[in-house]
Amino acid sequence: MDNFTITPLGDSWYLVDDGTERWRVAVAVNRDAQWVFVNGQVAIVDTPKPGRRRAASRDAGVMSPMPATVVAVHATPGQQVSEGDTLLVLEAMKMEMPIRAPRGGVIKTVSCAKGDLVQPGVNLLEFE
Q: Alpha-carbon distance 90 to 8, whole Å?
């Protein structure tokens, strides 16, 4: 972390600067995990607890990184997508966040619709 400057912007948003590039990063936290959103990608960091088994892999789905409203759904069940394709667009704190495919594959289910209010950790869609 010596090469990064992290500046809090408020409402769980941060500006990360490595001297050549800058990213706006959102972080949402609950007692079991942290969701980090940057450039349309969501990373989930489990918070391990003593004596608790690690959660199953979450590669099979895409979750909301924070409380948000679904403003667009670009994926449908059975659709083949490539890594980086925009699957959904969420809006939170007056900012739109494209949710991109973490990997290529076929969409199994879409569990949200335009206008839905979603919470962190809610599964928005699943891959086969």
A: 21
* Contact of 44 with 38, CB cutoff 8 Å: no
Q: What is the pLDDT of residues 7-40, one digit of tens each?
A: 988 878 888 898 898 988 888 777 667 778 887 7
Q: What are phi and psi of 54, to 5 degrees?
A: -65, 140
- CB-side neighbour CA atoms (13 Å) of 8: 3
The set of long-range contacts for 20-29, using a CB threshold of 8 Å and a minimum separation of 24, is: 26/65, 26/66, 26/92, 26/97, 28/65, 28/66, 28/67, 28/120
| Distance, CA of 82 to CA of 49 (rounded, Å) | 34
Is the entire prediction scored with pTM above 0.70?
Answer: no
pLDDT digits (tens, 9 = 90+) for 87-96: 999 998 788 8
